[in-house]
Amino acid sequence: MSRAPAQLPLGVGLRDDATFANFHPGPNATLVDRLVHQLDDDGEPFLYVWGVSGTGRSHLLQAACHAASDRDGRALYLPLAELGHFPPLMLEEVERLDLVAIDDLDRVVGRKRWEEALFHAFNRLRDAGKRLVIAAEAPPRQLPVKLPDLASRLTWGMTFHLQGLDDAGRLAALQLRARGRGMQLPNEVARYILHRGPRRLDALFETLEALDRASLSAQRKLTIPFVKQALGW
Fold first, then answer.
1. Start and end of every Chromosomal replication initiator protein DnaA ATPAse domain (predicted)?
2. Into how many domains does the chain fold?
3. Residue 61 is part of which domain span?
4. Is residue 2 part of a domain?
5. Rounded CA separation 112/108 (Å)
């Protein structure tokens, strides 16, 4: 039986739907493949993922933790947008885990205590042969890191730019997410949602969740008139 991913006492958990199977890679197939196989014997020790908000960084890091759990591994997801105001005590003894996924790195760079803790955690994970994936909004050389040794470490691994999807990719991602929720989303309705809805994928998926709840409550199929009524469009 697989163990649940290691979680912080602070209550940071993983979204159930944040899996690789529920992510449309589009132009990011190589990145997803590296993440899927990171815990393999020949997997990458360190991956750095950067991209603008809403492109799926957090989804992929949580998916990596789910995948580690499925392989009986222990993983820890650290979203620094939520945890950065705490002292970096959660980085102690991370080398006992199989995978550490640090999200929103840009939220703590420039802060001495955090930078030193990250540097030492990086070294301990490397020495123990464990895996690390870090995500931020900018590539490592563009982050205002003050500790030179940490700045150097951030360039050691493979760096990937998480690219946004074009309209065809956004349509495929929306349909994939709908199937994952057990929704029947006709193509014409999906195209209407893309045309009328938000551009950011995360906001688009929130719209889909709202429609799912509305259709279940009203016992109605998803049609363009129903979408207009449910969302006030």
1. 93-159
2. 2
3. 20-161
4. no
5. 9
- Cα–Cα distance, 110 to 143 (Å, whole number): 9
Q: Find out whether 15 and 96 touch, Cβ atoms under 8 Å.
A: no
Q: What is the pLDDT of residues 124-147, one digit of tens each?
A: 999 999 999 999 999 999 999 999
pLDDT exceeds cutoff 90 at 20:
yes
Write b or e for each residue in 178-188: b if 16 or more Cβ atoms lie within 10 A of its Cβ, otherwise e. beeeebebeee
Gap between the terminal Cα atoms of the chain: 47
Nearest partner of 63 among 89, 26, 93, 38, judged by Cα? 38
- Strands 158-161 and 46-50, sheet pairing: parallel
200 and 112 share a domain?
no
User: Which whole-number Å values give the CA distances from 20 to 63, 66, 134, in the listed order?
Assistant: 6, 9, 17
Both 150 and 180 in one domain: the answer is no
CATH classification at residue 173: 1.10.8.60
